[in-house]
Amino acid sequence: MASRLAHRHIALQWSYRISSQPSTSQTRPARIFARCIHIFRDIPPLRQHRRQLLLNGDTLGFVPTLGALHHGHLCLIRAAAAENSKVIVSIYLNPTQFGVTEDLNSYPKTWDTDVAQLRALDAELARTHGAGRIEAIFAPTTKAMYPTSPPDSTIPGVGSFITLTPLGTLLEGASRPVFFRGVATVCMKLFNIVQPERVYFGQKDVQQTVVIRRLVTDFHLDTLVRVCPTEREPDGLAMSSRNVYMGQRRRKVSVVLSQALRAAEAAYGMGRRERGDILALAWDVANRMVMEQEALGEAERAGIEVDYFSLADPDSMEEVEVVDGERGAVLSCAIKMLPLEVTKPGEVLGLGEDKVPVRLIDNIILQPQRPS
Ligand SMILES: Nc1ncnc2c1ncn2[C@@H]1O[C@H](COP(=O)(O)OP(=O)(O)OP(=O)(O)O)[C@@H](O)[C@H]1O
Ligand SMILES: CC(C)(CO)[C@@H](O)C(=O)[O-]
Ligand code: BAL
């Protein structure tokens, strides 16, 4: 009984969808079962449900998220539904991957629209021949996820953690020292709880995908890791939950990230293999934007700081001097969009009124080239 009460259902009733075809004796109204998407807040009822899925012969795809869902997340779920009969999505703002000075408290929280998007997507999947369905949302409490000691985000870190060294200390890990410890730890917990056949991650967080593959290999986890392409806005900006922090002014400037990467990718496309030759083009684009912004007045400009441009090995994420054409490389970048110094009346502002610094990341895979 306790376990039955421990999760809620959304969409409790059956519904009928009228087919766009006229109804005749041959073409009856399509009768589509608006199934409930279960919402689990605790682990035992989810485990029990998962056992039932196994007994029913279902395959399970898992999409972990921090919530504030956008089109990029929905693409991961579609990919999961394309190769599994059931999909579980987790929505959990994991505290241990946020450093003590980072944006955990202001991170966008959009539970109602997240659930509405998942319901709409599930209805779309119901109409898609052969697609799996969204079975459940796992939105655990922090007490459930961190049962024995409160989650600690300090660098010494009291608690049980997984670290991947040196991989987790490079690039994003250099700027966010507890980030990959938190990600690896929470993903290990989530994978142990959900026991998915396949897990789905976005290419946008490229180093995270390398960390997850390493976690699965080194800890012999029985799951397949799938990586889905980065979904972008029409101007090239990678979709990200944090983009809502940017109002119109910072949003316009943020396009520099993808433009810089594309310039460097073009150098690789033209046969350049030396680090300096490839990254110089990215730096040129970024420096030009920095100077353009600096030349404007306080009420017009949006400041940016480049954290890194990187050209790294796809398995280790260690920097390379020359791209091995048979291995390819990961070209990646992180920038900080600085808070606006002065805002103007009537200006379209982002979440937190453009006072929150926004760290944006992006990458392009430089594909291995076949020797001609
Ligand atoms: N634009 C995107 N295209 C494809 N996958 C994405 C995209 N953005 C995020 N994802 C993936 O969705 C999963 C959940 O990510 P998360 O909830 O942190 O969203 P996010 O947009 O990356 O948020 P943030 O702004 O905090 O980086 C991750 O595997 C992430 O790589
Ligand atoms: C994988 C993840 C959900 C772990 O909290 C998070 O790092 C993310 O959303 O990319
Ligand atoms: N998608 C990455 C999550 C984070 O930046 O914390």
UniProtKB/TrEMBL annotation:
Q: Which reaction does it catalyse?
A: (R)-pantoate + beta-alanine + ATP = (R)-pantothenate + AMP + diphosphate + H(+)
Q: Does the keyword Ligase apply?
A: yes
Q: Tell me if tRNA-binding is a UniProt keyword of this record.
A: no
The record's top EC class is ligase
- One matching Pfam family is Pantoate_ligase
Top-level division of the source organism's lineage: Eukaryota
Q: What does the UniProt keyword field contain?
A: ATP-binding, Ligase, Nucleotide-binding, Pantothenate biosynthesis
* EC number(s) given by UniProt: 6.3.2.1
Instruction: Spell out the InterPro entries in the cross-references.
Output: Pantoate_ligase, Pantoate_ligase_C, Rossmann-like_a/b/a_fold
Family classification: Belongs to the pantothenate synthetase family.
Q: What is this protein called?
A: Pantoate--beta-alanine ligase
The source organism is Neohortaea acidophila
